[in-house]
Amino acid sequence: MTNEEKIAKLMKLTGYKECTCRAWVEFEGKCAYCGEDLISTAFRYFSSPTDHILPKAHYPDFEWDVHNSVPSCTLCNSVKNNLDFLMEGENAEEMLHIKKKELINRAKAKLEPKIKDRLRFWKGVRDIILDC
């Protein structure tokens, strides 16, 4: 089955917009930032948002652009929030349509230390609760 067929089937099954379905197919159901498999369990699938690489709060014109959506795990999405990875003078449309991977790599580089901090925090909470 081609990606276009997968996207059409997902749109019909889920009722989601093309940008969401295209993102999930493009990244094979994995978080664009950390690579976590978001379709391995129902919980991961239903708790995983679709993220806007360029935040819709800053770039409302790109909210439904098919190039601006990526699947994201809850952790990466909450850490990224409304962070903007465009550099001064860059054209938003050009970066999304031609250099999307570069934007994602910038996000990964910025998110990685913050995610590690959150995971250390979570481990501390878990250890206290489980008396480890």
What distinguishing features does this structure have?
132 residues, mainly alpha, two-stranded antiparallel sheet
Mean pLDDT equals 93
Shape: globular
Uncertain regions spanning at least 5 consecutive residues: none
What percent of the residues sit in helical stretches (DSSP H or I)? Answer: 40-55%
Query: How would a textbook summarize the main sheet?
Result: 2 strands, antiparallel
* β-sheet strand percentage: under 5%
Strand order of the largest sheet: 1-2
The total tally of domains equals 1
The number of distinct helices, counting runs of at least 4 residues, comes to: 6
Give me the strand/helix succession: HHHEEHHH
Radius of gyration: 16 Å
Structural class: mainly alpha
Task: Describe this entry's structure for a reader.
- Helix 1 (3-14) packs across helix 2 (18-26).
- The chain has a two-stranded antiparallel ribbon.
- It has one domain (3-129).
- Helices cover 53% and strands 5% of the residues.
- It has 132 residues and is mainly α.
